[in-house]
Amino acid sequence: VMYIGVSEWTAEQIQAAVQIADDMGLVRIVSNQPQYSMLWRVIESQVVPTCMENGIGQIVWSPLAQGVLTGKYRPGIEPPAGSRAQSKEGSHFIQRWLEQPGLLERVERLGELATAADLSLPQLALAWVLQQPGVSAAIIGATRPEQVEQNVRAVGVELDEELLTAVDEVLALSLIH
User: What are residue 112's phi and psi, to 5 degrees?
Assistant: First the structure.
């Protein structure tokens, strides 16, 4: 084994594994693969600090919150045909977002912030994730090559403090910590 990564572990589990590896002289964990986005920030309070203290990077999944942070789901409008929200296999994952009162309106406001910053909404969401402390990479899901091309443009984008504050203000009532 050259590298070890974990997924969706708690801070306590990660710290225990690091201690076991150190005590036994074993290979340590180098990456954690949690869910993380502008909307889902559960890892910020404990997991990220524990990982940063131990040199463990975050390779996050669902940085676009199941597609909600792409802008394709609109308030009061039926989800697009063929979308994850219309899929029998994937719809139960996205429902927590679509059923949250006022969330899609807040996402539309994020779209306005993105446009003002000369970004698409997905680029804003991905740049935000990639700029967070401890994040090494983001796993994106794409169904078309143009989605990959657009998403890659978020790499290296530096969001200023004013924009980061505006994002937090827009989402203040919608965050899951």
Answer: -65, -40
DSSP category for residue 143: S
The span from the CA of 177 to the CA of 134, in Å, is 17
Query: How would you class 99 by CB atoms within 10 Å of its CB: exposed for 0-12, middle for 13-18, buried for 19 or more?
Result: exposed
Query: DSSP assignment of 79-142, as one string?
Result: PPTTSGGG-TTTHHHHHHHHTSTTHHHHHHHHHHHHHHTT--HHHHHHHHHHTSTTEEEEE---
Output DSSP code: residue 56.
-
**3-class SS at 48?**
helix
Sign of the dihedral through C-alpha 80, 86, 87, 90:
positive
Q: What is the pTM of this model?
A: 0.90
**pLDDT tens across 57-78, in order?**
999 999 999 899 999 988 877 7
Tokens of 23: 């005590």
In angstroms, the CA 25 to CA 175 distance is 39
Characterize the bridge pairing of strands 57-61 and 29-32. parallel
Residue 174's H or E segment, with its range, is none
